[in-house]
Amino acid sequence: MDLRNFGAAVRPAAAALAGLAFAAGCMAQTIKVGMINSLTGPHASFDLPASEGVQMAVDEINKRGGVTVKGRKYTFAVVSEDAQSKPEFAVSGAQRLLRDDDIKVVFGILTSGPGMAAATALGKAEVLYFGGFTLMDTLLGKPGSELMLRTLNNDATVAKSFVPASVTELGVKKIGVMLPNEDVSRSIVSIYKPLLEASGVQVAMVEYFQPDTQDFAPVLRKFQNQGLDGMLTGTNDALVEAILRQATELGGLPRKFMYRGGSGAPALKNAKGVDGFTWQILTRDLDNTSDAKVKGWIDAYKAYTKKDVSPNTYWALTFYDTVFMMAKAMEEVGSTTDVKAIAAKVKAMKYEGVRTMRFDKDGRAQSDIDIGMLKGGKVSSVRASAM
Amino acid sequence: MSALLDAPAVNPPNLDAPATGAPRAGSAWRQRAAAIVPWAGWICLAVLLVVPMLGGSRYIVYLGTLIALQAALATSLNIVMGYAGQFAMSHAAFYGFGAYASALLISSLGLNFWVAVPLAMLGAGALAAVVGYPALRYTGGVHLALITFAFGELARLVAANWHSLTGGPMGMRVMYSPSPFFGLELSSAKGLYWLAAGMLLVCLLVTLAIQRSRFGRGLVAVREDETLASFLGINVVGYKVAAYVISSMLAAMVGCAYAPIMNFISPELLSAHETISLIGVLILGGIGTIVGPILGTIVFFGIPEMLRVARLYRLVVLGVIIVVVVLFMPKGLGGVLRDRLARWKRGLA
Amino acid sequence: MDLIQTLLDGLMVGGLYATVAIGITLVFGIMGILNFAHGQMLMLGAYTAFFVVSAGFGFWPALVIAMVAMAALGLLLERIVFRHTLTDHMQGLTASLGLIMVIENLAAAAFTPDHRTFEPPLAGSFQLGPLTLSSQRMLVLALVVVLVVACYLFLQKTRIGKAIRAMGQNRTGAALVGIQTSQVTAVVFMLGSAMAGAAGVLYGSLFAITPYMAAAPLMKGFILTVLGGLGSVPGAVLAGFLLGVAESLGSRYLSASFRDGYGFILMIVCLLYFPRGLFGQRGKIRV
């Protein structure tokens, strides 16, 4: 064989091989991200938008090329399970996610009932879990929960701004509290009552009703003729809608409400019976905003989901920014599977997304919120900064 | 519900006179071959039990644990519903009672798992006796069905509302694992699987023991005709209550395993829906047979889970099956199989 | 004042329960079958009304359509399933359990578990002397009374009604005097289902509609059937009003969390110590 010919043959071959290697390096691998949410049932009003937010974020990351970790490209794929607003299904959904050994990160669940159950299962399995439900707060900071982060501010932080703003806006002096008979309710009362009293409001009565109550008349009657001018109630839209509707029917009840919960929908549906209504928007108010980032996000949401913005859409921002934080952390840490390092990285980050996101060392979110208000038929909102 | 008494599992029954004339030539080997079937069944069961241990799939172990638990529960219900013929709609309530009782005994009083289980069972038994005795004094199924149904719902309401004790409607987290059983560690996923499988075996053994005993035959007599049974000198009420109590105690025992396996107990565990599903599983698999509950559980849980069929459709299909089976095949799959086997043995088609 | 309002509430709720219980007790009295699937007629009646009202037809047409539709469904079920289980009551019960699973889960799959509500014909409250009364609730109370009275008249005055009562007293005897038992059972199912459907519409006008809403009224229906005596319609109705008032007073003045429990306790006590109920003639053989 002629050596010169040999050289001439080898060079293109080598170039081809190099090209193949380069291409192989460029071909994206997939990282599976788990998601457990109540896509059906009364809690779907929170969880469904949240799930859309995750899908949206993942889609955006993939469109811009995915993440590059240690020279390799990765895109994300979301594996979704339905918790059906019930603790048992939350657990079985979490278990189904866990059966896939590739899933190392899980997002989901904004309500405490299903949330506590799922968190217990996920905690045992050493996956990085980003959740949103209230009682998650009681899990954080304890040994064994280093891989758990809550992406919404806790009640105590929220209430500190919500209570004074609501009291000022509604002008109430004497209120009653009406909540479902659940653990979350007790923690709500223990936080809100002192804050209300500190704002000069008398909390005349606290009543708990059976959580699956349909007929609120017996409980509502307890609030009649007490000289109350307002009520604090919760915890999800379906419940509060029914309460407002029946309160309007019964008559003789206060017409101003503070809703420890996230949307103005119950008041809008019962507008005739309501004089004032405030609620907490734990992410961003989408209806009356001048914030350019929010406006841009709204357009992206509409394009992605082909849906219009509804009173509950703002929950989609629960995990949206956090997904980007996770991706960024993976790149900086240089691993897609070292969950401990990724968690630590996320906790050390400050991220200016649509929300300004930051976590403390225990995984508690410290972000700012908006407070929604309906008065005299007009809807508005006020921004309250993080602690 | 008019299935004949199960023949003893081991010896080929030579009292089993053929329906039409003398057995055909060559059916003797059929009889011997058929005698092997029960043994084959036990071997199959043993194999099935071991399967989750092979391979390392987290999921197969999880699935196996779930199926073992449900099968144990169905087997325990079979005692009062299949053999005694009584409609006990409170089964899920005792299941939940066992879970809550053992969880409370272990978490609050610090008792050892193996001490809490018998205690929970005793509590369940006492409760069952108190509820069952007045209810079972009457013949006919309706009174018992209603009382146990109401009791079950009442228990669920209590569990959902007695906040300080049970954590209310959003349930209770369970963080303990059973302590080792004669050196066999039980806190890992595989260990918990053995716990569930062990409970299934216990329920099966109790069922077998009853089936072969005088008590068991008396139960079947009660199931077929209560008045006649009392004329034969059988203490009908006593037998019925005993069956109900045994069933409920076993349900509580299985409930004690549920708590550490799922790490979470909710009042929904006690709901009538759960009991109705169990009844459906029993009917599907065949009431009054040993293999029935296991077969029904595998078909109802295992297959859809593996095919990832949504729970709603699974229940719809189960409902349709219940109606169809009740109308056309009252003996269920297990019963039909057993009849087929008996006919084959005799050399009939 | 408060007491009167609570009493009226109790009567209204009790009347709703009674409307459901009539179907259960009739079917049990005539056919010996405890139909667990009865509650599903209520749920389907409510959804029928929801769709009819949402389509723009108004409440009263919705009520009529729901009752007719449920009567038809009842007839269908009786023909296909329950007719064959006349001889074995427990088979009938079991079949009804299967039916619950089918209907409830099909509804959940088709309608999704979300809460639905529709606009009731009357809104708000009105003053009656010193009382503030909810308009829609009073309408429901009035309608319930009308339904119960109509049912009573049907059973007392019409030929078929008398045939039903005859069958309830003695099936063989009724057949001997020439009553078409198959016709009667069909009518009983239709009547009971129509009543449950109406109850569903009324429920839907006040409370949220979900695929699982049948469970609570069904339980109450059973309780009433037992309290009133298995097979006795007047008993069930009276027991219904009593239970409704007891629940209302209990939730208002005692604990609201335990509302459903009062009924169960009453029922268990009654079953254990008064097996014949308040008015029933059917006893059970003690062995």
Chart the SSEs and their pairings.
The complex is a heterotrimer of chains A (387), B (349) and C (287).
Chain A: H1 3-26, E1 29-37, H2 44-63, E2 67-69, E3 72-82, H3 87-98, E4 105-108, H4 112-124, E5 128-131, E6 148-150, H5 155-170, E7 174-180, H6 183-198, E8 202-209, H7 217-221, E9 230-233, H8 237-250, E10 256-259, H9 265-269, E11 276-281, H10 292-305, H11 317-333, H12 339-347, E12 350-352, E13 356-358, E14 369-375, E15 378-384
Parallel strand pairs in A: 1-3, 1-4, 4-5, 5-6, 7-8, 7-9, 9-10, 10-11
Antiparallel strand pairs in A: 2-3, 11-14, 12-13, 14-15
Helix pairs in contact in A: 2-11, 3-4, 5-6, 11-12
Chain B: H1 27-50, H2 58-83, H3 91-109, H4 113-136, H5 142-161, H6 163-166, E1 172-173, H7 189-212, H8 214-224, H9 226-231, H10 236-262, E2 264-265, H11 272-285, H12 291-307, H13 311-328, H14 332-345
Chain C: H1 2-31, H2 38-54, H3 59-80, H4 89-111, E1 125-128, E2 131-134, H5 135-157, H6 159-169, H7 171-176, H8 181-206, H9 215-228, H10 233-253, H11 259-273
Antiparallel strand pairs in C: 1-2
How would you describe this structure to a colleague?
The complex is a heterotrimer of chains A (387), B (349) and C (287). Chain A is of the alpha/beta class and 387 residues long. Chain A has helices spanning 3-26, 44-63, 87-98, 112-124, 155-170, 183-198, 217-221, 237-250, 265-269, 292-305, 317-333, 339-347, and strands at residues 29-37, 67-69, 72-82, 105-108, 128-131, 148-150, 174-180, 202-209, 230-233, 256-259, 276-281, 350-352, 356-358, 369-375, 378-384. In chain A, strands 8-7-9-10-11-14-15 form a 7-stranded mixed beta sheet, covered by helices on one side. In chain A, strands 2-3-1-4-5-6 form a 6-stranded mixed beta sheet, with helices on both faces. Chain A is globular and about 70 Å long. The N and C termini of chain A lie far apart (79 Å). Chain B has 349 residues and is mainly alpha-helical. Chain B has one domain: Orthogonal Bundle (ABC transporter involved in vitamin B12 uptake, BtuC), CATH 1.10.3470. Chain B has 14 helices and 2 strands. In chain B, helix 4 (113-136) packs across helix 5. The radius of gyration of chain B is 21 Å and the shape is globular. Chain C has helices at 2-31, 38-54, 59-80, 89-111, 135-157, 159-169, 171-176, 181-206, 215-228, 233-253, 259-273, and strands spanning 125-128, 131-134. The termini of chain C are far apart. Chains in contact: A-B, A-C, B-C. Chains B and C meet through helix 5, helix 9, helix 11 and helix 13 of B and helix 4, helix 9 and helix 11 of C.
